[in-house]
Specification:
By secondary structure, the protein is an all-alpha fold. About 60% of the residues lie in helices and about 0% in strands. It has a domain of about 230 residues: Hypothetical protein af1432, CATH 1.10.3210.10. α4 packs antiparallel against α5, α4 runs parallel beside α11 and α13 crosses α15. The relative contact order is 0.13.
Length: about 325
């Protein structure tokens, strides 16, 4: 072990909270890696995720607005980066492991389908499909030509358990779960207002009075509450008051944006497209690329692996190749 890594491990032992997951005490990987001389195990995981193909595909996957026209709407990639920033801020303030937190945040949504939760629901009608479980499958199996990324147990656990009804094994994993909610609630409000779906003044006054009248103010209020309530405690969560406010604001978004707005008007078409692709490739399994057929798993899993790896635009391209006749251009 080089002095660079030793210095980092020493810093963690001396300055991080007793509740932090120290790099030196990781449960490790399935396959041991030789030390590279510069990075701790969690830093290596962060970099492995950042350089993966699945991470790059996030830039072309829906967050809320389907294939939005305009440069300023969020995609799954920008959502991931915002979650990472919020999570790192909280981890630093609580003296928890920022590198582990960042790695979990960067990998938490790798398994999302084209068209976001609409695509997830479509696949789940045919077989069990959850994006958090698919995110884990990507880092364990699908990436690196079927070898996976060989991440540490703590990162894999955080990715699997980032959803609101899950319970991560580390406080760093809990940070990402709350940061995910903080990010999507606030940036979805921002995007919905930009798209004319809602107006900032339509947000109930009880939320703006308590949290702030802008996305930046609300994010800041939520982060500060989690830090103040959780500092030097064996848990990470907001106070009861703020947990209710966050839940209430989330419900406001479901009522006004996620389930009943013009922003979702095209979603049924996206759902139908994903369903068509599933039926087609299930009935024509030989058309699934070889790289997916050669992996372990059921027929249903292999079809889901292929479809969930698609970007929004690629899913449309494949649909058109199957359904739209090509012009005859032979001379």
């Amino acid at each position: 072990m080089t002095k660079h890594v030793q210095n980092t491990l020493k810093f963690e032992e001396e300055f991080l909270s007793s509740y932090a997951q120290k790099s030196a005490h990781t449960k490790g990987r399935r396959e041991v890696l030789a030390n590279d001389g510069l990075r701790t195990e969690f830093q290596r995981d962060r970099d492995r995720i950042l350089h993966s193909k699945a991470f790059r595909r996030l830039k072309h996957k829906t967050q809320v607005f389907l294939s939005p026209e305009g440069d300023h709407y969020r995609t799954r990639l920008t959502h991931t980066l915002e979650v990472s920033q919020i999570a790192r801020t909280i981890a630093r303030a609580l003296r928890l492991n920022e590198d582990l937190t960042e790695a979990i945040a960067l990998g938490h949504d790798l398994g999302h389908t084209p068209y976001g939760h609409g695509g997830e629901r479509a696949l789940n009608e045919f077989t069990h499909f959850k994006h958090n479980e698919q995110s884990l499958r990507i880092v364990e199996v699908l990436e690196n030509n079927g070898k996976g990324l060989n991440l540490t147990q703590e990162v894999r656990d955080g990715i699997l358990n980032h959803c609101s009804n899950m319970n991560a094994a580390t406080l760093e994993g809990h940070i990402v779960a709350w940061s995910d909610r903080i990010a999507y609630i606030n940036h979805d409000i921002d995007d919905a207002a930009r798209g004319g779906i809602i107006k900032e003044k339509s947000i109930p006054k009880k939320f703006t009075d308590a949290l702030g009248d802008s996305s930046a103010a609300r994010i800041n209020s939520m982060i500060l509450d989690i830090i103040d309530f959780s500092f030097d405690k064996p848990f990470v969560r907001p106070s009861k008051k703020f947990e209710e406010l966050i839940g209430g604001l989330r419900q406001f978004m479901f009522d006004n944006v996620y389930l009943s707005s013009e922003a979702k008007a095209e979603e049924q078409k996206a759902v139908d497209l994903i369903k068509f692709l599933y039926r087609y490739f299930y009935d024509n399994i030989s058309r699934v690329p070889k790289q997916y057929l050669e992996l372990s798993g059921t027929k249903e899993q292999k079809v889901c692996d292929y479809i969930s790896s698609m970007s929004d635009n690629y899913a449309v391209k494949i649909y058109e190749e199957i359904c739209i006749p090509k012009s005859w251009n032979k001379l």
